[in-house]
Amino acid sequence: MQKQSIQYDSPLDALIAIAKRLSRYETEAGLSSEDFFNRFSRGIWRDDAQAVEWANDYRHYLALRAELGKILDAAA
Hints:
Elements: H1 11-29, H2 33-41, H3 49-75
Helix pairs in contact: 1-3, 2-3
């Protein structure tokens, strides 16, 4: 699998794009990203390429959400 790099204009654009990918994973698996990630982290979810991508996207989503939260707190 080839690693892909995507540039976004803002953290909000990145968050929206990742949220859309997470939604596709969730629909396909019938499971929320949070529940998936808890299972994946405990080793009770398969360890294939798609699961690794989902886990990485979820980690990125959490980091972006935290970053945007700090920006919003500073602006308030």
